[in-house]
Amino acid sequence: MEAKIGRFFESVGSLFTGGDQIPWCNSDIVSGCEREVAEAEKGSSDELKSECITRLSWALVHSKRPEDVQRGIAMLEALLAGYNSPMQLRERLYLLAVGYYRSGEYSRSRQLVEDCLEIVPDWRQAFTLKKTIENKITKDGVIGIGIATIAVGLLAGGIAAALSLRKK
To answer: Which domains does the chain have, with CATH numbers?
Structure first.
């Protein structure tokens, strides 16, 4: 019985916290990636620079800091023009989808994941992100309906109370 109650409270908690499986990245990792990019800029090959920038953009879109996520999105948008292969495009689109998910732009994120799945139809990671996005959209809709219902109930209660006071 306690296990059932625990699972219930976990599911309710994940409803409000998001409960997604996308990893987070801390500022130390972001700083390390920034140093790596700075070192690569000092004469490394274009391929190594691109790898370092991709790692930095990964760290940025997985950061808990909204300003990092926005930086990552901007970097990835700029990188999209210079992809060399479908796999690079797939990676960048996926990371961009993560960034938009983290910034709350779920419809844009879902479209990018669908673009990834057009490139690699059986990519499990993209399927997982798509499901996470759709669950978030559904949860936000349920919460919105609940808030609207409460607001209507309070308004109706207020009107009923005002009318009952007026009759007295």
So the answer is: 21-140 (1.25.40.10)
* C-alpha to C-alpha distance for 18 and 110, rounded to whole angstroms: 16
**Angle of helix 124-167 versus helix 2-17 axis, rounded to 10:** 90
* Cα–Cα distance measured from residue 103 to residue 97, given in angstroms and rounded to the nearest whole number: 10
**Which tens digits make up the pLDDT trace of 27-39?**
999 999 999 999 9
In the beta sheet, which residues pair with residue 25? Answer: 63
3-state helix, strand, coil in the chain (%, to 5): 80, 0, 20
Alpha-carbon gap, residue 44 to 136, rounded angstroms: 41
Neighbour tally for 82: CB within 10 Å? 10
Question: The dihedral of CA 71, 77, 82, 85: what is its sign?
Answer: positive
* Predicted TM-score (pTM) of this structure: 0.69
Quick check: 126 and 94 in contact, CB under 8 A? Answer: yes
